[in-house]
Amino acid sequence: MKLSTRSRYGTRLLLDMARHFNEGPIQLGEIAKRLGVSLKYLEQIIIPLKKARYIESVRGPKGGHILARPPAEITVAEIVALLEDGITLVECIEYPSVCDRAPICPTRVLWQAVSEAMVVQMQVTLADLVEQAEAMEQEFQKKP
């Protein structure tokens, strides 16, 4: 499976917001600069994240965007599932009726197990990733 740019950048967007969670609303332009991503692309990605209530907008001169929930309550699996319209490898896992062979298909069982393993691995929270990013940066700064 290959994750779309939408999922990868959406995760990076939320991770950046998690890293600045206690700093108040953040302008999307600031995030775009930090991530090296087009502002127009982030404006498209933020739409489903706002609809799903991961992000809230704050109006006014000090406005911007904030996470609607603490980083410890948002998993990568949730983000990817939203931005990819699910996390299954093949359609017949979620909708067995699309294939007449689903009840007797051994590869469907395999794809289901692989999909479940991916979901387990993506149960990492944004808070976990913030902690990991900070540790990686500290380690990188120690190198000559």
What does this structure look like?
The protein is 57% helix and 6% strand. The chain has 144 residues and is mainly alpha-helical. The chain has a single domain (5-87, 122-142), classed as Arc Repressor Mutant, subunit A. It has a two-stranded antiparallel sheet. A hairpin with a 5-residue loop joins β1 and β2. α1 packs across α2, α1 packs across α3 and α1 packs across α7. The N and C termini lie far apart (37 Å).
Shape: globular
Total number of distinct structural domains: 1
Highest-level CATH class: Mainly Alpha
User: How far is the N terminus from the C terminus?
Assistant: 37 Å
Strand element count: 2
Number of helices: 7
Low-confidence stretches: none
Query: What is the percent of helical residues?
Result: 55-70%
Strand order of the largest sheet: 1-2
Largest sheet: 2 strands, antiparallel
Order of helices and strands: HHHEEHHHH
Examine the secondary-structure arrangement and name the CATH architecture.
Orthogonal Bundle
What's this model, at a glance?
57% of the residues lie in helices and 6% in strands. By secondary structure, it is mainly alpha-helical. A hairpin with a 5-residue loop joins strand 1 (55-58) and strand 2 (64-67).
